[in-house]
DNA sequence: TATGAATGAGATTTCATTCAT
DNA sequence: TATGAATGAAATCTCATTCAT
C-alpha cells in the first residue's frame, strides 16, 4: 500500500530529520512533519505505513545508504587497518557534514519505542557485520592479534565510535569530529597500555 | 515536600524497576507501579515529585549507590590497570546479579524524556570522572601510554562497556557478562594490533 | 491554531450552555460537553485552546454579542433616560428569552477559576462603559443630577440589575423579569425617598 | 460529632480566612488551612463536618456576627433613613477594617460550590430581611415613597452595596470604602434624576 | 482529643490515524 | 493522489477524607 519512492517520500523523510533535530523526538508530531514537508497529514500515510515506518525509513535511507557507500569504499583498501581507518573517517565525515542527521540518529531516535529501535538495529547489523569482516580479515592477515574475540572487538570499535559521536553532539560539536579519527584508531590498534608487548 | 526515604520509598523504586523491566518504559504507568508496590497511586506523590522523579531516583539509587561502592572499592588497589579491571568487574557483576535493573538502565530508561535523561546524565558523570581519574593516574604512573587523550580514552572505556552490557541484554543474556571482563581489559590494554610497538 | 468559527464552534458553545445549565459548572466535563455537541472530545480542541477558552468564548459570544446589539440599539434614542430604559429592557429580554444562558452567566460561571473570571470581566467592561456613557450624557443634558458620581452611579445601576437577574433565577423564575424593568427604572430615577427635592 | 466551639475551632476559621485571602479559593487546600491553623489535617474534621462546613461556618461566624451587631445597632435610630445610613456605614466599616475577610466573602467564596453558596445564602437572608424591615418602616413612616416595591428596593440596596464593595476590592482598595457611604445613601434616597418630582 | 500517612476517584488534553471529499 | 477535519483512547496528578495509633 505504502509507496516507498517519489519526491514526497523523500520530502517527508527530510522534513522528519529537520523537525526531530529542531524540536526533539518527543515533539516531532506527524502533523509538524507534514507541515514541514508541505504535504497534508494524510499524505504521509500514502507513503508510509505509520509514524514508526517514517522513523525507520529515515534511518534506513540515511544510514543505510551511508553503509552501502562505506562498504564500497573500503574495498579499495587492502589493509584491514586502513579499512578500519577509512570506515571511521567516512562515518565521522558523514555525520559531521550533516549535523541535523547526527542529532537525529545519535540522540533523538534512541528515545523511540521498541519497534523503531528494532528496525534501526536491523540496519545497524550491516554496519556491525562490516566491522566483523575487517577484524576477521585483520586477524587472518596477521595485522590484528590472533587471539582477538571478534564479537568483543566489534563492541570495542562500535561502542567507542558511537560514544565519540554522541559525546561530540552533546558538547555542541565544539570541536571537529574528523580530528578524532587518528586518536581513535591509535587507541584501537595500540590500546592504552605502555610497552604492552613486553609486559 | 516529597519524602525521599522510608520503606515505601524503596518499595516504589523496586516496583518501578520490576514493572519497567516487565512491561517496558512505555507501558509503565504510575498506577501499574503503585499496584506493584502495593500502595495507592497518590502515595507515590508523597515520596516523589512526579513520575520523572521516580525514574531519576531509581537511577540515582541503583546506579548512584553502585558508583559509590565502586569508588570505594577501587581505592584498595594501587595499580590503575587493576583499578580498571575491578571497575569493569564490579560493573558487570552488579548488572549480572540484577537482570531487571540491567534491562531498565541499559534499555528502557534510554527511551525516557529529556528531563529524565538529563537527571541520568548527571549521575553518570561521576562514573565518567572515575574513569578519568584511573586513566590520569595510569599515565602518571607510566602504566598507560603517556600520549593518551584522556577524554578519548574515557570514551573507549565507557563506550565499550556500555555496548557490551547492552549487547548482553539484547542477546537475552545467553552468556555470562562476567566472562567478558578479561577480554575487555585485554583489549583496552593491548589494543587490537599485533606487535604494534614495532610497526 | 484554534479555529474560532464554524458550525461546530457554535455547536460546542451551545452544548456547553446546556450542559452547564443542567449539571452545574462543577459537573460540566469536557467529555459531557462533547457528547452533547455530538463531536469527539478532541474536536473541542480544534476550536478552542482549552476548557477555559470554551467558557470565556461562551460568555464572549453570548454576552458580547448582546452588548454589541445593545450598544447599537440605544443609539436610536436621544434621551439618556430612555437609553437606560432600553438597556435594562434589552438585558432582561435577552436573559428571559434564554433561561439556560441566564443560569450559566449569572450563577454557574461565577464559580469558575480566576482565568475565566478575568476573561469575563474584560467582556463586562464594555457593558460598564456603556452605562458610564449614558450617565455622563444624562448629566450633560441636565436629565440626571449634576453632582452624580459616575462611578458610583454605575455601581448602582449594574449592581441592581445584576442582583435582580440573579434573584429572578434563584427564585426559579417564577415571575417575569421584564415586569421588573419599569420598577427598576423608577427607582433609579426617583430614588426611594419621598418628596426628596423639597426636603 | 463536629464540635463547633473552642480555641481550635476559631483558629481553623481564622486560618481559613488568611489562606483563602492569600492564595485564593482554588488554592486553599484543607492541608494548607490546617498548617496555617497549626493543627493536623485530621483535626479539622473533629471540629467541622467537611471542607464546605468550614467555609459556611466561616461566613456564618464572620458575617453572621456582623449582622447581629448591625441589627442591634440600627435599633438605636428611629429614622429609617438614618437606619439605612448606619447599616451601610457599619457594613463598610466592618469590611474596611478586615480586608482579608472582605476578599474572602466578597470575591473568593463566590467561586465555591452550590452547597456552600446555599449556606451563605441562608445567612445573607437575615441581612436582606433587615433591609426589608427598614424599607417597610420607611414607607410606613412616610419617609420613603409609598409605591415602593419592597423586594425591588431591597435588590437596589443590596446589589449596589455588594457591587460597591466588590469594586473596592477589585481596585485594590485604593480609596476609602467609608467615603462611599454618603454618596450611596444620596443616590438611594434621591435617585439619579434631576428635579424628578416636578417632571 | 489529636495526628498525619495513606487513600483512590476523577478529568483535561494530546496526537497518531482515518476517511469522506 | 491528496487533503485535513475529525476521532477517541489513554495517563498523570490532586486533594478531601479516613483511621490506626
UniProtKB/TrEMBL annotation, chains A, B, C, D:
Keyword DNA-binding: yes or no? yes
Q: Which residues form the HTH tetR-type domain?
A: 6-66
* UniProt DNA-binding residue ranges: 29-48
- Give a yes or no for keyword DNA-binding in this entry: yes
* Annotated InterPro entries: Homeodomain-like_sf, HTH-type_TetR-like_transc_reg, HTH_TetR, Tet_transcr_reg_TetR-rel_C_sf, Tscrpt_reg_YsiA_C
Pfam families associated with the record: TetR_C_4, TetR_N
Domain of life assignment: Bacteria
What molecular functions are annotated in GO for this chain?
Answer: DNA-binding transcription factor activity; transcription cis-regulatory region binding
Arranged from A to Z, the UniProt key words for this protein are: DNA-binding
**Under what name is this protein listed?**
TetR/AcrR family fatty acid metabolism transcriptional regulator
Amino acid at each position: 500500500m505504502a509507496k516507498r519512492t517519489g519526491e514526497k517520500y523523500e520530502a517527508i523523510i527530510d522534513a522528519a530529520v529537520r523537525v526531530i533535530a529542531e524540536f526533539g523526538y518527543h515533539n516531532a508530531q506527524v502533523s509538524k512533519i507534514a507541515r514541514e514537508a508541505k504535504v497534508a497529514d494524510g499524505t504521509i500515510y500514502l507513503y508510509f505505513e505509520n509514524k514508526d515506518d517514517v522513523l525507520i525509513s529515515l534511518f534506513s535511507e540515511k544510514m543505510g545508504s551511508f553503509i552501502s557507500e562505506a562498504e564500497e569504499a573500503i574495498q579499495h583498501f587492502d589493509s584491514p587497518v586502513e579499512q578500519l581507518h577509512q570506515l571511521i573517517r567516512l562515518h565521522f565525515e558523514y555525520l559531521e557534514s550533516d549535523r541535523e542527521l547526527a542529532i537525529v540518529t545519535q540522540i533523538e531516535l534512541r528515545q523511540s519505542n521498541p519497534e523503531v529501535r528494532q528496525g534501526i538495529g536491523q540496519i545497524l547489523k550491516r554496519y556491525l557485520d562490516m566491522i566483523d569482516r575487517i577484524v576477521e580479515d585483520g586477524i587472518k592477515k596477521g595485522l590484528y592479534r590472533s587471539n582477538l574475540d571478534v564479537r568483543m572487538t566489534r563492541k570495542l570499535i562500535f561502542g567507542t565510535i558511537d560514544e565519540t559521536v554522541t559525546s561530540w553532539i552533546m558538547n555542541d560539536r565544539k570541536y571537529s569530529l574528523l580530528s578524532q579519527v587518528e586518536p581513535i584508531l591509535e587507541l584501537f590498534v595500540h590500546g592504552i597500555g605502555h610497552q604492552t608487548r613486553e609486559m
